[in-house]
Input
Amino acid sequence: MRVFFILLILFSCQSTNKSSNEKKVLLISIDGLRPEFYLNKKYPALTLQKLAQENFAVKEMIPVFPSVTYPNHTTIITGVTPDQHGILSNTIFNWNDGPTTEWYWDHKYINVKTLNMILEEKGFETASIHWPVTLNANISYLIPEIFALKGWYEGTTWDLVRKYDSNNIVDEINREKNLSEFKNQKQSDAWATEAAIYLLNKKKPKLTLLHLTNLDKSQHQSGRESLKTYKSLKNIDEHIRSIYKHIDQNTCMMILGDHGFIDFKETVNINKLFFDRDWIRVKSSGEIVSWKVIAQKSGGQAAVYIKDKTLEAEVKALLIKNQKLGYNYVSRSELDKLGAYPEAFAAISAKEGFNIGSKVDSTLTVKYETVGGQHGHLPSHQKMQTGLIAVNCDLENKISKNKIKNTEIFNLILNFLNI
Output
């Protein structure tokens, strides 16, 4: 019996040592992260700047097109472009009804295996906190990104997160960390930070995904260089500092973004062009009755779809002619190279200082007195570039510090984990 207990103690010690030495990855997405935030000391991001200086940092990371949140977050965890993984935009296009308000919340829309799927299938536990397109995913500790939207999900965002989490993990975190309900994005980021710390310390998942969103919101509302943006950046930087205190030498912490930002003071309502030619018909309420040509806009770009193929030449000529309004025409062949919108006829991408809108009951262009921020534009635009900081990830001499694509992250993580 004594021998048995000695062996049991020795086995427990070995198991503990093995667990503490096991390689893990924490992947933090700061929505709207621009590389200058950690490369230029004028910004209030002391933690990010220190981590970038002392570890591995990339000057530019190129997003996929469209450079909006859901396609890019999915590319990061699959390693492929939207035409392959299936998350084509933030919201879903329907050939019968046209653009819908339904977001790609659900994991079922992803056509390929994600990092979480690969690791869970190999018997590892993973975690995800507010990562896009994870609703109903098979993740050990799942706190999905889901929010209330009329016609789709009713109630508060907090209620929905609790309803769709895995194994009541939200309630467990609240109980153990003495947290309470979040009611806005700033509070959501603070809560998510504490949730990540709890999971890292108590559950020790092989991979943890964390999505912080309030910096994106601030840049949308007031532009790239506003006081509001600076305050949000400082707040996010403090969250990173809190998390970093809980990272051991065997955990690779990657901090990255999904897109950059461009300021704008004018919007081009592209569907107005089509409405004026009777290619879109709507009710007095604005609801679409029928369409022959229509644009699905998301951020500073839009995909153009054509039902009536006899109109293709006319639509192309119209879009090219009107580029002076404030956008660039993106052809079908260009979309193929970008891995974007496989069923669209073409797309448009806003020029510097412009946004894309979709209203038909408005003027073709709308000017504003105040600055707003937008993304979605072609990834070749310098201001659409995002960034990457890697701590304990062994990336030196493996990738360029000048420029990488976000499609590379997937394999970098698998290689680090020896998967």
